[in-house]
Amino acid sequence: MNSAKAVPYLLLFLFLFIKVSAFRMLIFDTKSIGHIAFVEFPVWALLLAIGLLIFKKHRWLTVWIYSFLVSGIFFAVTLYSRYYTTIPSYYDLQQTTQSSTVGTTILLLINPLDFLFFSDLILLAIIGRRWRRLPRTNALKYAVIGFLVISAITTAYAIKQPIIDISYFAKENGYAQSQLVQMYQQTTEKAHASSTELSPKKLEELKGNEFIPVHSHENFGLAEGRHLFVVQVESMQNFVVGKSLDGQEITPNINALLDESAYFSNVFQQIGAGTTSDAEWIANTGLYTEGMVPIVNQLNGDKVPSLAYALKDKGYGSATYHADDIEFWNRDVLYPALGFDEVFSIEDMPDIKQVGFGPADEVLFDFALDELPRQLKTYDRIYSNIVMMTSHTPFLMPEKMQYLNLPKEYEDTHVGNYLQAVRYADEQVGVFIQELKDQGLFDESLIVIFGDHSGIHGSPLSLEDEVLLNDFLGHPYSLKERYTVPLVMTGGGLFEGTEMKRLGGQVDIMPTVLALLGIEYDHPLMGHNLFQYEKNLLGMRYYMPGGSFIQSEQLYKAPGAKLPDMLYDLKTMEKRGKNSETKKHIRDVQVILEYGDSLLKPYIQD
Q1: For residue 136, is pLDDT > 90?
Q2: In the chain, what are the domain boundaries?
Q3: Among residues 159, 164, 87, 181, which one has the least CA distance to residue 590?
Q4: How many angstroms separate the CA atoms of 473 and 257, rounded?
Q5: What's the angle, vertex CA 78, arms to CA 240 and CA 409, rounded to 5?
Q6: Whole-prediction pTM
Q7: Smallest Cα–Cα separation from 323: which of 295, 278, 356, 296?
Q8: 290-314: per-residue pLDDT in tens?
Q9: What ranges in 55-189 are assigned the alpha helix state H?
Q10: In the CATH hierarchy, which top-level class contains the domain 200-207+230-603?
Q11: Strands 504-505 and 261-268
């Protein structure tokens, strides 16, 4: 074998090794060259070597295409992890075209140094001038065999490990292997939970409560016979409620509404990769999502036990409103599966006042209100599910829709833009509530308002933004501020300015609503009636590492790609040392999540 013929190939694999090393160090803070060389690198090198063997007549073209694809993957993963603080799966990388505002969001995430992933293309051009044709050599065959053996060993080992958190799994077993294992598990259905079953009694015991049948709950039937309006507010976090900036309330309308509402101020988001659509799923089914894959993209089209179906049996007609493309996040599959009688999307609403995705929220509410008279004649009672959208990242509001006079230091900042967008959303909620009162429907309805997920997170937050948040809050921005969303339940004569500080999650919305409406539900629910139970134990996937939990006294963040595990006192968010209770909660929340996964199996694709 002529060793000179192997030189250009050695350079190609060296460039690839450097790129893989840079990726590992950036995403996982990995500094072990040995781990990179024997765990992460062989899979990437194997794919390149196989390509060079197969495409003998077009080896340089193969090198260029492969290098560009790998650079593109690393670039995309970097931006994704910078925003979501977790790594994406192969499935997530296919979803980059889902959002019409993705281009604007990407501009907020990019660091010019990210383009260094493509710098090896310049080096390839240089050695391409030296070796215009890559020589034939048996070294490629030996390279394939060597990389194949190492990759097979590491992948076989990875397949035997449980994926509790994908970022931590990828750090330990390799990013490429993590994708291969995910695909393997989805193919063999190992990604789904076993036939774990929990009775309602056992589920409440795991949460720390004594089970009480729903018909015996103190507030059971409090809102029986009323219409139901559920308003899902885009990106609204709980920390804005009751806060002011230079004497200007961020949510004046919601603040005023609290005097005649039950306000749950300690409710955590539980969404996964499907973000807003996951929040719709959870609120309308009382079930968890799988986390890494948007649940809406897995549905097999079968009927899903839901809030709409439960209400249909009581004479309710249901309608859902969202001023976006019906195919976005597969809502054309989701809404029929959830049993909505009427579905309204961007195709049905006036094409005016466009902001971001589509018509502004004021157009959405006007449309929904215009449909009410007909629906009130058609159905005995109505359930309206209204999904707001204007306050979506990157929170760039037209001047006419800006209600806050921001201090100079807040202007053109991510935090300032967010507060402005939330203030607009609050205004539209206020107008809608007032219209219901004017029509005499407020006293005949149960109205539920909740935030779908956090808006302030990830790399769009600059150091300047962090300073502003600290100033706005009066303390550093914590995980609790990031993950808590407001949940407000109101209606004429139902509540008297009650703030509930007990722990809740989005899975608790549907059980609480059903209890208020006096409906006993025959299907399993992961949540419970927030008015009845004091304790809770919540699982969260995707936005916190797998194995994390939120419990009435503790918040545990499991180890992730870069950071070690951490336990916080939920009330003060001060760090605490792990104890026997922590270990028990880790085990219990895993049981809960496995049960949640088992409940999903009938409704998702094989």
Answers
A1: no
A2: 3-188, 200-207+230-603
A3: 164
A4: 22
A5: 35
A6: 0.82
A7: 356
A8: 877 889 999 999 999 999 999 999 9
A9: 59-84, 102-109, 120-130, 139-159, 166-173, 175-188
A10: alpha beta
A11: parallel
